[in-house]
Amino acid sequence: MKQSIWNNDSKKKTRGLRRAFRNFLKYTTIHTSSLPNANDHSALGCWSIHLPFNPSYMHAKCNSNSIKRFYLQTAINRVEHLIHLKTVTEKEYRIYFGVSFPNLHTSHILIVFSKQGIERFFEGFLRRYMDGPQWISLPQERDIEKEFGLHIPKELQVKGYTEIFTHPDYNDKEIWFIGELD
User: How are beta strands 157-164 and 134-137 bridged, if at all?
Assistant: First the structure.
C-alpha cells in the first residue's frame, strides 16, 4: 500500500464527526446484533452488510488517521461479536470483514453459510477476469494490524491481496479479509 493512502499528516478539525461516529455505531450495531437465518438467504448462500463509510470523511485531506482506524476497528469488533454469537447449528458459518483500500466505502461484512462456500468464494476471487485485474497475495511481511494500529483478535485470520490492472487508467488497490477464512 502506498503511504499516501493512509497517512495524510493532518490534525485539522472535521465538522460533524461525532454525529458520523454515532450513526456508524448505531447502523453497525443494529445490523450485526444477531446472525441472519440461512433459510432466508438460501438462494444466495451468503449474507452481507455494506458498511456506511462516508467517502467525504475518508478522502478529505483534513482527516486524521484515527477516524479511519475507528471505522476499521469497529467493524473488526462487530465481526468478532458475530463469531461469538454462533450456536451449534451455525458452526459452519464463516464470518469475515472485507476491507478495501484505498476506497474504504466499498468494504463490507460477509457471512457465508458453509465452509465450502468460503472455499468457492476464494477460488472464484483469485481466478476471475483473466484478461482484467489480477489478484496477487500480499507478502507475509505485511501486517495490517501494525500498519494501521488495529487490534485483531487471535482467533481471526488475515489475508491480504493486491489487485493489478493491466489498463493504465486503473489504480492498484488492496483488499484484506479479516475473520474466519478457513
Answer: antiparallel
The domain of 74 spans: 3-179
Please give the single-letter amino acid code of residue 31: H
The C-alpha cell at 135 is 489478484
Nearest to 133 by CA among 102, 167, 101: 167
Residue with the larger pLDDT of the pair 56 and 149 = 149
Handedness of CA 80, 83, 84, 85 (dihedral sign): positive
Alpha carbon distance 109, 121 (integer Å): 14
Number of domain units in the chain: 1
Provide φ and ψ at 136, rounded to 5°: -120, 135
* pLDDT attached to residue 4: 44
pTM for the structure as a whole: 0.80
DSSP for the chain reads --HHHH--------TTHHHHHHHHHHHHHHHTSSPPPTTTTTTTTEEEEE----HHHHH-TT--HHHHHHHHHHHHHHHHHHHHH--GGGTT-EEEEEEEES-GGG-EEEEESSHHHHHHHHHHHHHS-TTS-EEEEPPTT--HHHHHT----TT-EEEEEEEE-SSTTSPPEEEEEEE---
pLDDT tens, 21-66?
A: 888 889 888 988 888 887 776 666 788 888 777 666 655 555 567 7
